[in-house]
Amino acid sequence: MPEIIVALDYPSVEEAVALAEKLQGRGLWLKVGMELFTLGGPDIVRELQNMGYKVFLDLKFHDIPNTVHGAVSSAAKLGVKLTTIHLCGGAEMCKAAVAAATAASGLTVLGVTVLTSLSAEDLQADLAMYGFEADPVTPSPATLAVNRAMAAKNWGLKGIVCSPHEIEKIKAVCGENFICLTPGIRLAGGATQDQKRVMTPGKAASLGSDFLVIGRAITAAADPETACDKVLEDIYKAKLV
Ligand code: C5P
Prior knowledge:
The structure is a single chain. By secondary structure, the protein is of the alpha/beta class. It has 10 helices and 8 strands. It has a single domain (about 5-240), classed as TIM Barrel (Alpha-Beta Barrel). It starts with a strand and ends with a helix. The site of cytidine-5'-monophosphate (C5P) has 18 residues, from strand 2, strand 8 and helix 9. The site of cytidine-5'-monophosphate has 18 residues, from strand 2, strand 8 and helix 9.
């Protein structure tokens, strides 16, 4: 069974804590991302940990190697279990993050391959921004994600963040134990909002996702507890077949 991480992407600490209280007892992890961390800082992380949750600190570090090394060391001191860096920060930055996590122990650093909000058209538009012609050999988000995952493995990372559509290809080249954490999860028929490459929780679980990050499918639901239970049910059903 994959671990389920609920993304507490809220504009206030009170809303985040209220949902954390409601969802207790389900064995979930919680994600503190940049919206909540910018407001609540380390205190909100400690509060959630004191409630018994494991915390995924998703700040997607992307800076010079020395700064990222320091940021990952700080995340380890805070006691979070998972954190993220952008793989496009390059080899030295990624290796610095791995070194900091290894020195601290207990913290796993995952590399973001390609944001699940980006489509093939967005990547083409990026090329144009850098002054290159759009061309048919520009890698698709999936190819880019697999290439970056292989680089991540070579740099010593234990896993990556990817779209659930890329799990099979990444596990095939990086190995079954290479961790795939997947956002872009929606219940069947749910609104996709800004995500372009989405999948249901059950399908992502059956493809081998190790961690499912789920935000608005739960947080924006009229009844988040019921939505959360539907997610868990979808996964159990998929894993039974
Ligand atoms: O609301 P939704 O389920 O789309 O939220 C997905 C969560 O996963 C957000 O917190 C977002 O920051 C995060 N995420 C993502 N794509 C990535 C990495 C993280 O959507 N590549």
